[in-house]
Amino acid sequence: MFVVRTAGHVLGPEVLGSIEYGVSVLSCPMVIVLGHDACGAVAAARAAVENGETVQGYVRDVIEKVTPSVLATRAAGLSEDGQFIAGHIRHTTSLLLERSRLLADATEAGRVAVAGLSYQLADGSVHLITSHGLGTPHIRAVS
Ligand SMILES: [Zn+2]
To answer: CA-based Rg of the chain, rounded to a whole angstrom?
Structure first.
């Protein structure tokens, strides 16, 4: 397993390059965007949008990258925490495929699958939010 971790699973050039390295050099067959419930980055982005709360330093860059997901979820008329978490996982997964031509091509060619999963802190279960390539993985509860 080749792991690239960022707060709020935000994407930047270094993250995209690391993922492309994992796929092209290490031949990783699956890319997973793993979000989780009670995510502080999503909560902070919601607080920024809904209450104008601001954060300092580079944490602000993280929050700004989560904000489009929050805005899209709100625009869809959704309001539950889980819906914001799922929306951000779905958005990050789509963004990954939009920004990385290498990953999109590998997915279209059937060499890689890309999935967005939500991890539940309380019981360790994982739920499938979205997937691309190689059919639909069936992941329900993995402890
Ligand atoms: Zn988080």
So the answer is: 15
Q: 3-state DSSP: the chain helix, strand, coil percent, rounded to 5?
A: 50, 15, 35
CA distance 90 to 69: 9
Unique residue bearing structure tokens 């279209």: 108
- The C-alpha atoms of residue 73 and residue 85 are separated, in whole angstroms, by 9
- What is the DSSP secondary-structure string of 97-143? HHH-HHHHHHHHTTS-EEEEEEE-TTT--EEEEEEESSS--------
- For ligand 1, the distance from its centroid to the CA atom of residue 107, given in whole angstroms, is 26
Between the CA of 42 and the centroid of ligand 1 the distance, in Å, is: 7
**Ligand 1 centroid to residue 126 C-alpha, Å:** 14
59-110 pLDDT per residue, tens? 999 999 999 999 999 999 999 999 999 999 999 999 999 999 999 999 999 9
| Distance in Å, CA 109 to ligand 1 centroid | 31
Global pTM value: 0.91
